[in-house]
């Protein structure tokens, strides 16, 4: 598959780049992507939810009424879940939601996501971003030139670029990452992925050998 290369102003440079088939041409495995996204979202959960059960609420354990003769159900404590202020039955407790996935499965999920991006024409190649100093206005102009608009955009640089990161952090729907730090969730969640041309070799080096 070939993609046109644009400059930072959104102009077509007239060059085309052939995407490596080992990264952008694999058959997408939807179940692998599902599991990787599920693990990512599970790892974001704090798991600190907690409600007080019968043994933990404050209150007297004195029997509130006699056992028989009242015409109602027997009751032994105000801590009972049937009363207002009583403990909750089988309430949530702190827990860890994370789970393990094999490295090969996670690599397959990322390759599947990258191939899906290429197939859906959501990948934009740029030769250079030309961000010399941290300035949101300049970075927004680059995105406007590439016609990504206000859509969720993932920008992939070859390596960590402080100017790009600082210029984009005030843009709510823009995320900057590197090939090695990408997650399947990031790739599938983006409407457009703006990728530097020099990043393609890093993709091939990292993911195709997994």
From TrEMBL:
HAMAP family: Ribosomal_uL4_B (MF_01328_B). Pfam families: Ribosomal_L4. SUPFAM superfamilies: Ribosomal protein L4 (SSF52166). Residues 44-77 are annotated as: Disordered. Part of the 50S ribosomal subunit. Keywords: Ribonucleoprotein, Ribosomal protein, RNA-binding, rRNA-binding. The keyword Cell inner membrane does not apply. The gene is rplD. GO terms for cellular component: ribonucleoprotein complex; ribosome. PANTHER family: 50S RIBOSOMAL PROTEIN L4 (PTHR10746), LARGE RIBOSOMAL SUBUNIT PROTEIN UL4M (PTHR10746:SF6). GO terms for biological process: translation. This is Large ribosomal subunit protein uL4. It comes from Rufibacter radiotolerans. It comes from the Bacteria. GO terms for molecular function: rRNA binding; structural constituent of ribosome. Belongs to the universal ribosomal protein uL4 family.
